[in-house]
Amino acid sequence: MKRNKAWAWIVFAIGASYFLLPLIATIKFSLEIRKAGWTLDAYTNVFADERFQQTFSYSLFIGFCTVLVGLFIVVPAAYYVRLRAPQLRPIIEFVTLLPLIVPAIVLVFGYIRLYNSSSWLPLTNSNLGTATLLTFAYVALGLPYMYRAVDTGLRTIDVQTLTEAATIMGANQLQVITQVIFPNIIVAVLSGAFLTLAIVIGEFTMASLLNQQVFGVYMQNVGANRAYEPAALSIISFVLTWGAMGMIAFLGRFAPKTAPRT
Amino acid sequence: MASVGSIADSAAGPGDPGPAVAMRPSPFGWLAGLRLGDMIAVLPFVVFAVLFLVLPLGYLFVQAFQTQDGAFTFANIGGLFSPKILDAFWLSIRISAASGGLGALIGLMMALAIIRGGLPSWIGNAVMTFSGVASNFAGIPLAFAFLATLGRLGLITVLLKALGVNIYVRGGWDLLSFWGLTLTYMYFQIPLMILIIAPAIHGMKKEWNEAAATLGATNGQFWRYVGIPVLWPNLLGTLSLLFANAFGAIATAYALSNTAFNIVPILLFAQIRGDVLGDRGLGAALAVGMIVICALANVIYLVVRTRAERWLK
């Protein structure tokens, strides 16, 4: 058993150094903007930058829109498939997995070809249209995670009985979904929402090709023009990702532990 | 696992096949009970799927087989076999295979270390939490982190230089190279592997060890005849997922080097931006080529994954 433990510690140590060294190096680099010693000036520069504030709040806004649109698309469909048409499940699951199979750059290429200014639905003509297109592109990116989260949530509650009970009490289908099912899966929904936000906030490829000034594009710009601020941005992104994952883990504690009869 | 929100969940689909499998009168039986409310419920999903998944991809497929005038042609697909594009595909495949293969191997070893290596449980929890974060820490910020570590002014580069070792010599280390990008990609590949393989390793029951030991098997024999064969479908499947994961990635490579890397996604990026290939049809063919390779890798993953789950339930 002793020998067994030694190899595990060695593997762990190698792995830990591979994962921690870049973080340490980046933190150190981000503090070295003044020759005189370590300062937080790189972070102050970033936070004070008007373009940071604009692009970051814009990314947040697009992220929230993405979550709302995603919920509107996913929740009713997942509910319906679970309750009444389990035969459709493989088809729906395949569709929700498509964005994992097809790279984001290919998807956005398709959008640009299909919705360009000379097409049947010229979304890229106006800024509002392009922003809408970007939102839907992000919905597609988040679809696998959002669907999975909602479906997992539905699996932990007794959809059938809840629906029957609500219907007997006179609720219509819209009320069942919004007032009975949705509140019961809110924890799962929020997990999906935070994961989607984590993916969308720093996204570069799609936004860049749609000429949208989002946080990811801003980071790329800073990276091309500055030395120390990119390191600060990298740490900020890492903390943001950590925050989103932390929220998901935190929410997990409130998830219902009871499964329906099976 | 759902709380970590890994791709494992989204792709695994261990879900109940549903009661419908047992008693299905006809595949279209559900149509009979279809009500207006049901149709409205699925309508947003269907409209979205058609407008933002089916049509755009279908349109690219059509364009890949069309001349500028709209006639059918194989010329675009044939155009993919030019030296520059073949080079790009080859480099992409090599980087994806290397970062996926090494990522899977190291991820497997780390998962084994934390789950079966007898490390304190807080370390295991920390590694799983960190994996959830690191597997989502990709794109532009990841490039910045590796520039600060192994770039020309990076911490390790500078430290080694102080020790008298200059890694940036001709023929030496370069972050903007095959190995540089591979090492960078492994930062999200290894955690992804840990997240996906950990449930499979947890699923290996203690009794298997005991049964093998009772029959006189050594530890090595246990892994040779029981452990690896049981994990094998999972390993193979995850490998293809990691491959596809790296194959479509672009932001990190772009932030490291702009368009210096001749990999397929960067070539496609430049094509979308400025039509560098000078041929719309060829651009579509390039996208279709990417879809085909990623789809192949994912089909292997999904098929193998379904088989693997029979074992571990």
Cα distance spanning the termini of chain B: 15 Å
pLDDT under 50 segments of chain B (min length 5)? Answer: 1-24
Count of DSSP E strands of chain A?
0
Secondary structure tally, helices of chain A = 12
Binned strand content of chain A: under 5%
Quick one: overall form of chain B? globular
Structural class estimated from helices and strands of chain A: mainly alpha
Percent of residues in helices of chain A comes to: over 70%
Elements of chain A, N to C (H/E) = HHHHHHHHHHHH
Q: Averaging pLDDT over every residue of chain B, what do you get? A: 83
Radius of gyration of chain B: 24 Å
Largest sheet of chain A: none
If you compute it from the alpha carbons, what radius of gyration of chain A comes out, rounded to the nearest whole angstrom? 23 Å
Largest interface: A-B, 106 and 99 residues
What does this protein look like?
The complex is a heterodimer of chains A (262) and B (313). Helices cover 77% and strands 0% of the residues of chain A. With 262 residues, chain A is mostly helical. The longest helix of chain A has 34 residues, at 50-83. The two termini of chain A are 41 Å apart. Chain B is mainly alpha-helical. Chain B has helices at residues 7-12, 29-32, 36-64, 75-79, 83-116, 121-134, 140-150, 155-162, 178-202, 206-214, 219-247, 251-257, 264-274, 280-312. Residues 1-24 of chain B have low confidence and may be disordered. At the A-B interface, helix 1, helix 3, helix 4, helix 5 and helix 6 of A face helix 1, helix 3, helix 5, helix 6 and helix 7 of B.
